[in-house]
UniProtKB/TrEMBL annotation:
Organism superkingdom: Bacteria
Pfam families: EAL, GAF, GGDEF, PHY
Protein name as catalogued: EAL domain-containing protein
PANTHER family: BIOFILM ARCHITECTURE MAINTENANCE PROTEIN MBAA, DIGUANYLATE CYCLASE DGCP
UniProt xrefs under InterPro entries: Biofilm_reg_signaling, EAL_dom, EAL_sf, GAF, GAF-like_dom_sf, GGDEF_dom, Nucleotide_cyclase, Phyto_chromo_attachment
Species, as recorded: Thermoleptolyngbya sichuanensis A183
Length: 874
């Protein structure tokens, strides 16, 4: 007997029609509300019930009917009604998720059936599983009765394994739901889950499109040829529009180079004219310091750091959310007592949400972006009278809509809002910082790092412009070279840190005493150049020059140290002394050297004779370089006398230059020249070797050995090979170390105390004597001097010359002798020229002396008779 195919009921075509309509709607439309409305309508028509509604849960557990289909007004509409979270307990929601539970309720029989179907994705057919019949909850039955419902079907709608909402079918009469109907409804709900996923994906895509479009717009603006104010204003307006805000604020902090802070605003603002200066606003922003200085930048990252940050930009945007972002609502601010001043600023405005995004990377703050959103009014239709009844114990008496109106609600900041704001802030930070780095590089290329004055490159440009203006207006213009006197002594004795501080203070004083039209630059070292335009006569330049010199002669207080300096100033005038930059600078430099030669602390205006003097100076330097090989350098010796006995106790070796044309050249003229030209070390080594050989020759001639004092220049003393060189000289000449006394100046000793102590200790270990020359003219600390391994202190002749008539010199000489005695050192006075000075030195118990009173420096053959007698007549 053959089997016959069973008759396919009409309901099957209805099922196919329902699924076809829902699937087509999903394909034809990407809008979820339209798909849900179609699904509710088709399922109601398929089931033939009075009402089908789709109910969506909110994050707080409440829900809203968002789609509905009703047949002939058999039941009242519930569309857009909200139901409190207590209407569907959490336990019921969990049950829907775990078991994909459907609940069918027969109100008239007060009977409830829980029914589960497996999902077709599992590969199993749709067959009945876990069907449980239980009495319906009386509260729920009464709940449905109040709604006019006699039969209901509840099907959970899931999205990503979470309960998204419910599809509910209501009928005003008792009704049975067949197996086939349940299958069609479940398949339809599964299609809705697909539509929900599709809608979420669409929302994400739209958000991404907005995100990328806004970033592209910002990037194009930041790289546009518009001015910086125009760019920043338009970027701010674009952000306000993208985030649907009512106002915005972009603050760019002051730059280290001196550019002032800048503020850009659009739309509605907090009610404060000086918001950035408000300490509470700064704290809200995360800048926990006082005053506008809190919102300034003191350091700019290196170009390498910015490039590294920019290269990781994509990764940082996707994976990192800056902890510095500040997103607030009016309610959250109002709940914190700290922010009440900010609440007071917002209350008169419509602003009810603010975003504060610092433009910051690695604690480098360059400003912030502020976005302000207005509040909105919200109307919620609640199902039934709004009251706190014990839900699921006492049902609602009525489902008439109760209207709740919430005014001026604060909009929340979504993750998409935060991502967009953070990304734009990073682009702004990069743009601002890149511009600052470029500006700083330009600034550093044209300015001196120590004094912040223009350097020679910028000065040349400034001078060129000033010259062009002077030529056009037929005016006189001055160019000046200024050099500090004795600056090397200060640098050597007090250290480079003090020297740098002094240069900074000199730069400040020079700025203060110049006219607004004048320009100043640091040329290098302790040299400064000036442009002095709009001069009417030579008297104008004289007044300016004298004002500069007077201003610099006032004492400088660097820490606890009081320092006095002077300066030498050389001036060249346009159009008399040159018509171009190079000539004017050269002639001003010549005039400055002339001021040095005239005794320093004065100014000289260039004249043609200075060029001749400079040529002579260069020729003298050239001759000095050849003097050693031509045997023009000589060593003379001046005896050192014991003041108590009058006996010669030693001699000092002193360098002399016998020039073939000029005769004897003064040491005061050629020693500084040797130091400037760098040949002083070579000459110093020759003097040391010559003096030791002379000591050996005198001993060979039968003279008794005596102390030979030899000066070490500052450059010679700084040589690391000094001790080795001296030991080699002693060994070659056969002189015993105790008869060699090395003299170093106080300023050379104080250049590097640690190095000096170490070097002197090595020399003392060799057995030589150490004397500190020119004592009292430097800036040494007594706490340092006591640690130097010395044998003799030499009082500088400047303190001997006016003694005993000058009370200050008397006091200094007394102090040095007392200090030497206290430290166990011998004291020798230099430059003794009168019997009165000798008596004074004896009265204060000075040990030794030397000077013209006893003998001028003599060549070896002339001093030999004195050494034989070991006595001089004074």
């Amino acid at each position: 007997m053959s089997k016959t195919r069973p008759h396919v009921p009409r309901r099957t075509s209805h099922r196919e029609h329902v699924l076809h309509q829902i699937t087509n709607r999903i394909r034809q439309s990407l809008e979820l509300p339209e798909i849900l409305s179609t699904a509710a309508r088709e399922i109601r028509r398929f089931l033939g019930v009075d009402r089908v509604k789709i109910y969506r849960f909110a994050p707080d557990g409440s829900g809203e009917v968002i789609a509905e289909a009703i047949h002939n007004n058999q039941l009242p509409s519930l569309l857009h009604l909200h139901f409190p979270a207590s209407d569907i307990p959490q336990s019921s929601r969990d049950l829907f998720v775990r078991a994909r539970q459907r609940v069918i309720t027969d109100v008239s029989a007060q009977h409830q059936m829980a029914h589960r179907l497996d999902h077709p994705d599992t590969g199993e057919s749709l067959i009945n599983h876990d069907i449980r019949h239980t009495p319906a909850d009386p509260c729920h039955v009464q709940y449905l009765n109040t709604m006019g419902v006699q039969a209901s079907l509840v099907v959970p709608v899931l999205h990503q394994r979470q309960l998204w909402g419910l599809l509910v079918a209501h009928h005003s009469k008792p009704r049975h739901f067949s197996e086939r109907e349940l299958q069609v409804v479940q398949l339809s709900v599964d299609q809705l889950s697909i539509a929900i996923a599709q809608a979420n994906l669409l929302a994400q895509t739209r958000a991404q499109v907005l995100y990328e479009a806004t970033l592209n717009q910002v990037s194009q603006l930041l790289h546009s040829p518009l001015s910086q104010p125009e760019i920043r204003q338009q970027v701010l307006e674009a952000m306000v529009a993208a985030l649907k805000a009512v106002g915005g604020r972009l603050y760019i902090a002051a730059e280290p180079s001196g550019e002032v802070a800048q503020l850009y605003v659009t739309g509605e603002q907090p009610n404060s004219p000086n918001l950035e200066q408000d300490p509470v606003w700064q704290e809200l922003l995360g800048r926990r310091t006082d005053g506008l200085s809190a919102l300034t930048s003191t350091h700019t990252p290196s170009p390498e750091a910015i490039a590294q940050f920019a290269s990781s930009l994509d990764t940082s945007l996707e994976s990192e959310k800056s902890e510095t972002l500040r997103f607030h609502t009016f309610d959250s601010l109002q709940a914190d007592p700290r922010w009440q001043p900010i609440v007071a600023l917002l209350e008169p405005t419509s602003i009810r949400a603010i975003a504060l995004i610092p433009l910051q990377f690695q604690h480098q703050f360059v400003g912030y972006l502020g976005i302000f959103r207005s509040g909105y009014d919200q109307e919620i239709l609640w199902a039934g009278q709004h009251q706190e009844d014990a839900r699921n114990i006492m049902p609602r008496a009525s489902f008439a809509a109760w209207r709740e109106i919430k005014l001026n609600q604060a909009p929340e900041w979504t993750p998409q809002d935060i991502r967009l704001a953070n990304s734009v802030a990073i682009h702004l930070y990069l743009a601002v910082t890149q511009r600052r780095v470029e500006a700083m590089m330009r600034y550093q290329a044209s300015h001196d790092a120590l004094t912040s004055l223009p350097n020679r490159l910028l000065f040349n440009d400034q001078l060129s412009l000033a010259l062009a203006s002077a030529q056009q207006d037929d005016e006189m213009l001055g160019v000046a070279f200024l050099d500090l006197d004795r600056f090397k002594l200060i640098n050597d004795s007090l250290g480079h840190a003090v020297g740098d501080e002094l240069l900074q203070e000199v730069a400040r004083r020079l700025r203060a005493c110049l006219r607004p039209c004048d320009a100043i630059a640091r040329w290098g070292g302790d040299e400064f150049t000036l442009v002095l335009p709009h001069l009417h006569s030579a008297e104008d330049i004289s007044h300016i020059a004298q004002r500069i010199l007077d201003r610099l002669t006032s004492s400088f207080y660097l820490g606890e140290q009081e320092i006095y300096i002077t300066a030498s100033l050389g001036i060249a005038l346009f159009p008399y002394d040159g018509a171009d930059v190079e000539t004017l600078l050269k002639n001003a430099d010549l005039a400055m050297y002339q001021a040095k030669q005239q005794g320093k602390n004065n100014y000289q205006i260039y004249h043609e004779g200075m060029a001749v003097q400079t040529l002579n100076h260069l020729a003298l330097e050239s001759d000095l370089r050849k003097a050693l090989s031509r045997k023009e350098l000589l060593v003379h010796y001046q005896p050192q006398i014991d003041l108590m006995t009058g006996a010669i106790v030693g001699v000092e070796a002193l360098l002399r230059w016998q020039h073939p044309l000029l005769g004897f050249v003064s040491p005061a003229q050629f020693i500084p020249l040797a130091e400037e030209s760098g040949i002083i070390c070579t000459i110093g080594e020759w003097v040391l070797r010559t003096a030791c050989q002379q000591q050996r020759d005198w001993q060979a001639a039968g003279l008794p050995p005596m102390r030979m004092a030899v000066n070490l220049s500052a450059q010679q003393f700084q040589q690391s090979s000094l001790a080795t060189s001296i030991l080699q000289t002693l060994e070659e000449t056969g002189i015993e170390p105790q008869y060699l006394e090395l003299e170093i100046t106080e300023s050379a000793a104080m250049r590097d105390v640690q190095f000096t102590t170490s070097t002197l200790s090595r020399l003392v270990d060799l057995g030589v004597q150490i004397a500190m020359d020119d004592f009292g003219t430097g800036y040494s600390s007594l706490s340092v001097i006591k640690h130097f391994p010395l044998h003799t202190l030499k009082i500088d002749q400047s303190f001997v010359r006016d003694a005993p008539h000058n009370s200050s010199d008397v006091a200094i000489a007394n102090t040095v002798v007392a200090l030497g005695r206290g430290l166990g050192l011998k004291v020798l006075a230099e430059g003794v020229e009168t019997a009165e000075q000798v008596e004074f030195l004896r009265s204060i118990q000075c040990d030794f002396a030397q000077g013209y009173y006893f003998s001028r420096p003599l060549p070896p053959e002339a001093i030999a008779p004195l050494l034989i007698s070991k006595q001089v007549t004074g």
